[in-house]
Amino acid sequence: MISGHGDLDTAVNTMRLGAFDYISKPPDLNRLLNTVRIALDRKELVVENKMLKKKVSKNYEMIGESDGVERIKDMIDKVAPTDARVLITGPNGTGKELVAHWLHQKSERSKGPMIEVNCAAIPSELIESELFGHVKGAFTSAAKDRAGKFEAANGGTIFLDEIGDMSLSAQAKVLRALQESRIQRVGSDKDIKVNVRVIAATNKNLKKEIEEGNFREDLYHRLAVILIEVPSLNDRRVDIPLLINYFSEKISNEHGTAKKSFADKAIKLLQNYDWTGNIRELRNVVERLIILGGTEVSESDVKAFASK
């Protein structure tokens, strides 16, 4: 707040009512700019803190009662308490990330970090630095030493999503990390010991990638100690009513509105759709129907707003 009434009582009351700072007129521009900068930084930290708290307090669980989902739940109960490496396969949008988080949440490493790396989103020339870190001067933009994701995940879990898109040179380094529990930062020959559990996921057929020379067979066997296949939504249509109910409640909470119900005929119509985008697509369609549909989402709403 900027005011010409620069007395102490006004300043105290202003701060008590929620002002970030109190500046008397005429304002010192340097102080004003500095205050705005600090306020913006503080706001960014508050938002980031809220997001992290939300992520930490989040409970991960697969919704469904189909044979495929029950099989995954059973495997997670058996595998999570161990340190066995897990390879999760399945089409895009099926919930591979959720399975990885659930494994970590139910493991003895749950109090440690869960570090996610999307191998497909990082350029091949940067993937090694991202995973293993680098030392100052290792390459042109390496202005200082930097720890990689493996070091950040020490004592916890690292989730290598879309590992089928990783370069062969990075695969070789990941293989060494799995074999020896040691990594080297880019530009250094010093070994760093790491204690991480590795969970990987891919939407690719890695056996086919091996045949074509795009993926290392020895790395595949190191990763696929436990293989979890996540079925497509078309293969678990029996779960669609449960998923619609779950997403309806979740989306309504996010929007701060009353939960909408779906008519039986609307649910039946959605069950018969060809869900090429899997769970991700279903969630988007449910959100669209909640926003555009009637008080109860009807069959006609589905035909009007969710037609494919």
UniProtKB/TrEMBL annotation:
One of its GO terms (biological process) is regulation of DNA-templated transcription. Gene3D superfamilies: 1.10.8.60, 3.40.50.2300, P-loop containing nucleotide triphosphate hydrolases (3.40.50.300). CDD domains: AAA (cd00009). PROSITE patterns: RESPONSE_REGULATORY, SIGMA54_INTERACT_2, SIGMA54_INTERACT_4. InterPro entries: AAA+_ATPase, AAA_lid_NorR, CheY-like_superfamily, P-loop_NTPase, Sig_transdc_resp-reg_receiver, Sigma_54_int, Sigma_54_int_dom_ATP-bd_2. One of its GO terms (molecular function) is ATP binding. It holds the Pfam family AAA_lid_14. It comes from the Bacteria. Residues 62-291 form the Sigma-54 factor interaction domain. Residues 1-40 form the Response regulatory domain. Keywords: ATP-binding, Nucleotide-binding, Phosphoprotein. Coiled coil: none annotated. This is Sigma-54 dependent transcriptional regulator/response regulator. It comes from Winogradskyella psychrotolerans RS-3. The lineage of its organism: Bacteria, Pseudomonadati, Bacteroidota, Flavobacteriia, Flavobacteriales.
